[in-house]
Amino acid sequence: MGFLVYFLIIILVPIWAQFKVKSAYKKYSKVSSSSGMTGAEVARRILDENGLYNVQVEPVRGVLSDHYDPRSKVVRLSEDNYFGTSVAGAAVAAHEVGHAIQDDENYSFLRMRHALVPVANIGSNFSWILIMIGIFAQMSGLLLLGIVFMAAAVLFQVVTLPVEFNASNRAMNLLVSSGVIRNDEERETRKVLNAAALTYVAAAAVAVLELVRLILIYTGMNNED
């Protein structure tokens, strides 16, 4: 029964977080911002105000496919946000610009996350293969190796949290200081940013829980020996 509850939690929590962000985005993507600025204009204004004239703003296909590319120095906004004038679009644009500013300032957690990318990719791709073989073959050494790889991927997700929260905090401050949103729009904007942050919190929480479960399995396997 305990395992059933556990698996329900790790399945339902991410689904709930995704529902929250999509619901908030859908709701406030229909609310026009008082400034009437498109997401592209919001991003460009904030970038210029912070001296990041070399960072470009481009549209990208997809829904909520917005991201900042540190290699190309480009803020890419989904077409609805790039061309739209909604509160949600302004919030997302400012959030991605927040990442560009982090990059320019060499924000420590962003640098740490970038450094962890290769290790995290290896951990995500190979950890479960080693873990499953280790569990079914009762090879504790192989299981431990899989746990180590998985821990690297989990560390990446944990480090992502301060990066995303910091970008959202910057976004709120930048939107207000640049005059993109009014005081009475702050509540709606914060709801969009908080909902997006939930997805990262849920992913990190589930990853940590799964890592702890595997460590307990490894400990139990060694105790049996």
UniProtKB/TrEMBL annotation:
On whether rRNA-binding is a keyword of this UniProt record, the answer is: no
GO biological process terms held by the UniProt record: proteolysis
Keywords for the protein's UniProt record, in alphabetical order? Hydrolase, Membrane, Protease, Transmembrane, Transmembrane helix
**What molecular function terms (GO) are annotated for this protein?**
peptidase activity
Tell whether NAD is among the UniProt keywords. Answer: no
What is the official name of this protein in its record?
Zn-dependent protease
What the entry lists under InterPro entries is as follows:
Zn_peptidase_2 (IPR007395)
Classification via PANTHER family: MEMBRANE PROTEASE YUGP-RELATED
Q: Membrane-spanning residues where? A: 6-25, 115-136, 142-163, 192-218
Q: Which domain of life is it from?
A: Bacteria
